[in-house]
Specification:
535 residues, alpha+beta, 2 domains, 7-stranded antiparallel beta sheet, 19% strand, globular
Amino acid sequence: MDLLHYPFASKRNTVIANRGMVATSQPLAAQAGLDILKKGGNAVDAAIATAAALTVVEPTSNGIGGDAFALVWMNADKELYGLNASGPSAKAISKEALTARGIDKMPIHGVIPVTVPGAPAAWVALSKRFGKLPLTEVLAPAISYAEDGYPISVTLGQNWQNAYKKYKKSLTTEEFNAWFDTFSIDGRMPEIGEMWRSPGHADTLRKIAATNGEAFYQGELAEKIDTFMKQHNGFITKDDLASYEPEWVQPIGVNYKGYDVWEIPPNGQGIVAQMALNIFQHAEAKWQDIDTLHKQIEAIKLAYTDGKAFVTERAEMPVDTDTLLSKDYGEKRFAEITDTALLPKPFDIPKGGTVFLATADADGNMVSFIQSNYMGFGSGIVIPGTGVSLQNRGYDFSLDENHPNFLKPGKRTYHTIIPGFLTKNNEAVGPFGVMGGYMQPQGHFQVVTHTVDFALNPQAALDMPRWQWMGDKRIEVEPHFPNYLVQALQRKGHDIHVAIDGSIFGRGQIIWRDQKTGVLYGGTEPRTDGTIAAW
C-alpha cells in the first residue's frame, strides 16, 4: 500500500490487524467497540458503542447532550454515507428575545447557548440503517462503565481538574449545581487514578437503548429537560426535542493528488480543509521545506477566512459549496500567495465550517465518527439525576443581522466538529479525524498532506509536529517543532509563538485499509490517552 512507506521515525508503531479495529482517545471506549465487533457487530455497531462509552469515560469532551457527525463506508454498496446530527437552536429563541433580557452577545455557559442535542439521535439513526445488533446490546459497555465506575486516566484527569477549578470560580449560580453534583467526588474534583461512576448516566443510557431514543426526545428525559429549562429561563422545550431528526446528507469531496478527501457539507467546517487542499495542490510539496510550509500556512489562512465568512446552514450560505470547492477558486486563491505572510480577507464571491473515533470491520465497512459538547464540558448545564451534560453550540451564533451565522429560531449554527474520510479509485482508504475546535480543519489538512505528499504511515502522520493559525499573522507551533523552520517562518513575516498548552493542537485517529489485502493499519494520537483496539 503506497501510503505506508515513510521517511519519518514514529514515536509508536502503526497497529496492524485484519478482523477489526477501533481507534479513539480513550482505551476503555476503544475496548467497548472491539467487544461489540467480537460479538458479531459491524463497524457501525462498534462506532455507536465507542461513542456511547466516550460520553462516560471522557465527559470532558463530549456527552449525551452533544452533537455528532458520521461518514459511513458500507463496502457491499461501495458507497459513503453522511449523517449530520447537529441540533438546531430553540424555536423560541431570537435576537429580540435576548435583547429583551439585556443580552447583546451569546454567552458561553448557562441555558441560553444550549441547542438541541443530536448525539442520541445519531446513534439511533446509524443503528436502524446499518447496525446488526440491538441498541440494548451495543450500549451495554457504556452502561457498565457508568454504573460500575472506572479509574480516571492521565489526560482526562488533567482536563477534568482544569475545568473544575475554572467552573468553581465562574459557575456559581443555582442552574450549575447539578454539574458539580455529577462531576465531583465527595464535593471535590476527582484525582487521576480515582474511580468515578455516574448512576444517573447509566440509567439514561439504559432508557435510550430500550426505547431507541424515544425516551430522550419524546418521553421521560425530554420532560426533565423541558422542566429544567422552564425553571431556569431557558429556551429549549420538549417540542424542540420531539421535532428533531438527524439529516442524512451527501458527503462533499475534492480530489487531492489522486485521493478523494470527503467531509460533511456545511453547516460543518470540513469544507475549510478541502478548500485549503484545493489551494495548496498548486504548490510543489517538499519534505521539511520552508517554502512548502509557508504555502501550507497561507492556504489554511485563505480557506479559513472564507469559511468563517460564508459557512452556516447550507441554504443560507451567500455562496454555494460548488464554488468554494471549484478549481477556479483554488487557482485564484493560490495566486494570492506571495513569499511573505499575508493578512487574508474574504474571497470576492461572484454576485447572483471534541471526541473522534474510527472503526473498521473484517467486511471492509468503516466509520468516521465525531461527537462533542463543545469547549470541554459544554454549557455547564446538567439535567439533575440524568448525567445529561448539555452542549453550548449556540455560542457560535452571531447577533449581527448581516452575518451569515445570525441567530434564528430553529437554525443550526456553524459547527466545528468534522469527520474525514479518504478514498481512492472509488474504494475506501479509511476514516481519519483530528479533534479540537478550530484546529480541526487545520489538523485534517496537515494529516492529509503528510499522508499523500510525504507517504507517512498513520502513526507517523499523527506524530508530526503541528502548527495552528490563530488569526492575523499569528502561528502557534508545538515545542518540538523544528527551530530552523520557526526561524525561517519568522523571516517570511509570520508571527510565530511556541505554545505552552499542547492541547490546542488537537487529537487525531486514523485507520487505513489496504485495498488489495484488506489489512488494517491504525494510528492513534500521542497527545492524549489514545489507543487502538485491534483484532
